[in-house]
Specification:
Order of helices and strands: HEHHEEHH
CATH topology of the largest domain: Arc Repressor Mutant, subunit A
Helix content: 55-70%
Number of domains: 2
Strand content: 15-25%
Distance between the termini: 46 Å
Largest sheet: 3 strands, antiparallel
Length: 123
């Protein structure tokens, strides 16, 4: 599911970064590693990944510095509080959405039952 503040691509990139971080606050991440974890249906290239990483850094999820390792570009990522709490916020948002859907379904069921009772009474 998509976070309220993030686009679908940014959400997929953040999920991949969080998965690759393995709970670490600071780590190195190559764009090719990130591309390997991302869904293939998204058709990500290096420019799209770089744009999403920059957007997430601007949103305060992590700090990013570009560097090179053996001639290959690599991101040095330092997770901030919002990045470390990403999974928890996503879980809470999903739980809230499921509660709202359940509440709407119960409201529809209650209105159906009341309507049926009224039709029986006033027939």
């Amino acid at each position: 599911m998509v976070n309220d503040r993030l686009s679908r691509r940014e959400n997929e990139v953040m999920n991949a970064i969080f998965e690759l971080s393995s709970g670490k606050e600071r780590f190195l991440l190559a764009p090719c590693e990130l591309n390997a974890v991302l869904p293939s249906k998204g058709k990500y290239d290096d420019a799209v990944i770089d744009r999403c990483v920059r957007s997430l850094a601007l949103d305060g999820y992590f700090e990013v510095v570009e560097s090179e390792r053996k001639g290959e570009p690599v991101y040095v990522i330092h997770m901030r509080e919002a990045g470390l709490n990403y999974r928890r916020q996503d879980y809470q948002r999903r739980r809230s959405l499921m509660f709202r859907l359940l509440l709407a379904a119960l409201g529809a069921l209650a209105s159906f039952i009341v309507g049926a009772l009224l039709r029986i009474i006033f027939k």
